[in-house]
Write a structure and sequence with these properties.
Layout lengths: L10 E6 L1 H18 L6 E6 L3 H8 L7 E9 L10 E5 L9 E9 L3 H11 L5 E10 L11 E6 L4 E2 L15 E4 L4
Parallel strand pairs: 2-3, 2-5, 5-6, 6-7
Antiparallel strand pairs: 1-9, 3-4, 8-9
Helix pairs in contact: 1-2
The structure holds inosinic acid and magnesium ion (MG).
Inosinic acid (IMP) binds next to strand 5 and helix 3.
Amino acid sequence: MDDETWPGLGVGDTVVSAEKIATRVAELGAEITSDYAGKAPLIITVLKGGFIFTADLVREIALPVEIEFMALSSYGNETRSSGSVQILKDVDVDIAGRDVIVVEDIVDTGLTLRYLLDLLGARQPASMEICSLFLREEAGTEAPDLRYVGFRLPPVFIIGYGLDVAGRYRNLPHVAAFDPSV
Ligand code: IMP
Ligand code: MG
């Protein structure tokens, strides 16, 4: 679908086009393929925002990956993270001894990820790296090190390609600024 013709209210300026996302996701997949040669990494996707990114990313990884899903909830208003996190769904497998790659949609303050890494790290994976499609340029100092980052973002709230406002806009094929005035 053409970026310009998407009909949803609130869809502001394009921040990253669908084409640019596809190019960058292919690069990340190639990087992971070469970094994990000879291994079978366990991808752990953070729902819901990471589902579209993961679906595209894993098809760019030429390795026998396994895919698990976690769902976390952080409370607060719609556009800021409060730092209080709950597990809504855990992975279904033992991650001890596995090469884990945590796939996130966006790291903002890093609080969600920090919580997740503490939790998963205690289960003794062989290795654990993070792949986030977006990193807020002004991410908090508590943001963990990210091995793979798709794009660095200015302080604008974005929607699309898995990212939502109040559950909507995840199906937008590109990433746009959320603009309630549009
Ligand atoms: P953090 O804990 O502050 O790093 O927040 C990370 C989570 O907040 C992400 O996984 C998203 O679910 C959500 N989030 C942060 N910024 C945005 C945004 O610009 N658009 C949509 N969701 C966002
Ligand atoms: Mg999220």
